[in-house]
Amino acid sequence: MKTLSENRAFGGVQGVYSHASTACGCDMTFGLFLPEEAEREPVPVVWYLSGLTCTHENAMVKAGAQKWAATEGVALVFPDTSPRGEGVANDAAYDLGQGAGFYVNATEKPWAPHFRMWDYVTEELPRLLFSAFPVDEARQAITGHSMGGHGALTIAMSFPGRFRSVSAFAPIANPTASDWGRKQFAAYLGKDEAKWAAHDATLLMKKRGFDGPILIDQGASDQFLDLLKPEALAEAMMARRQNGAFRMQKGYDHSYFFVSTFMEDHIGFHASALYA
Amino acid sequence: MKTLSENRAFGGVQGVYSHASTACGCDMTFGLFLPEEAEREPVPVVWYLSGLTCTHENAMVKAGAQKWAATEGVALVFPDTSPRGEGVANDAAYDLGQGAGFYVNATEKPWAPHFRMWDYVTEELPRLLFSAFPVDEARQAITGHSMGGHGALTIAMSFPGRFRSVSAFAPIANPTASDWGRKQFAAYLGKDEAKWAAHDATLLMKKRGFDGPILIDQGASDQFLDLLKPEALAEAMMARRQNGAFRMQKGYDHSYFFVSTFMEDHIGFHASALYA
């Protein structure tokens, strides 16, 4: 593992690190914010999964999360959104290939050799994180934005007991019924839609739900609402009697201005679960 | 109008008043809490509509709302849930007749002569309230519990511009699809289901929504969830991109213990709109 940068921030340290990833078959970069408390003891961690076109860096510099993580004494980890590099397959579209891993393990050509973001985020990066940093594996929470909200919700529901809480900002809520999902699942997972269901938050909510609280914020002026399909997930949450809240925020769009506005609520929400 | 009682409470006055109602053709009783500020100037008002079997008194003594209304400087009005008295039709069931007005104007026998709770709550009682008490007609909000949540939501959406905010505790959210609704609408409004639609919060949300914020709390352990149908309203709210939040509260049931737990949030929510 290489340290690319470390900066003092809000009394803690914002680091950026790279490592050779077995899951993705390339070097991967991630950001990690450790609050001051981590100098003395392992701290709880909130995973932040980013959206389409993002690297590890976008949320790290634009989401305004470190302030609240420092206040609450929690770490933040910012993984990249896909494998990258010259030897890695890509597509001219912004929503497929590099920057658009969709948090799945690709089984189809040309994506299968590198696009294994599910394994990377749920197995390889956690092993590295918990062995190399003062972060408490027993106290994890997860959030994300857009494609990253999709990742946070599907991962949280797929690993019962791992995460105490999950939240999302404008998640892709029902990708098997959206052009943000059908295109990518067909490319990465193949035409058999039965294999897509494990990566759809609405379908997972109907099937099993989440054993902890959920908080979802969605901007009512989001330019991608028709692709995100919040109504499908809201219906599934309430039909399941899922502990949680779904909030439609008037006037907010899909940007990091929206994310940063409600970040305090989300970090506070996770801290309540992590320090319960 | 007769003053039945007035008690000092949280620096203000909790009163109970009765008057001869033209809409209902009988005497009607209501509770009104005025905060201390009302001694000096008209204050905003939050309407609280109660649920099945309740009189004006239940929420007044069990919801714990006066404390927060005093803190925020808002009045609370607690109407009864139906006409009452020996000359008023009734039914042996708890969910029809006296204590179960459902906030509609009955057109069918034997209910039509007295069961006009829609007119009572939206016309007659407001006229009395705004002429007799220091309450500001330009700043109204509305909430309610169960059948009263149904009333609050349907009334708020039916009078655009009248209420700045609406909230509900465990509302009957889709009565045209529930035994809490179909039975009563058939009795009060007749068999023509087209006439029921104006009294269904989910259908009104699909049709027109609400021009302000909405807050809904629902207990996940509510014993009446199958009758309340929160998932239908949550889906309709998010499909419409309605400004608002739908919260599923783990472990809470249908009682006033649930209502009183979240009353602070609701009064604070309304005060934000009323003092904006």
Automatic annotation (TrEMBL), chains A, B:
GO terms for biological process: formaldehyde catabolic process. Coiled coil: none annotated. GO terms for molecular function: carboxylic ester hydrolase activity; S-formylglutathione hydrolase activity. GO terms for cellular component: cytosol. It is an enzyme of class 3 (hydrolase). The keyword Acyltransferase does not apply. Its EC number is 3.1.2.12. Keywords: Hydrolase, Serine esterase. InterPro entries: AB_hydrolase_fold, Esterase-like, S-formylglutathione_hydrol. The active site is at 146 (charge relay system), 222 (charge relay system), 254 (charge relay system). It catalyses: S-formylglutathione + H2O = formate + glutathione + H(+). It comes from the Bacteria. Serine hydrolase involved in the detoxification of formaldehyde. Belongs to the esterase D family. This is S-formylglutathione hydrolase.
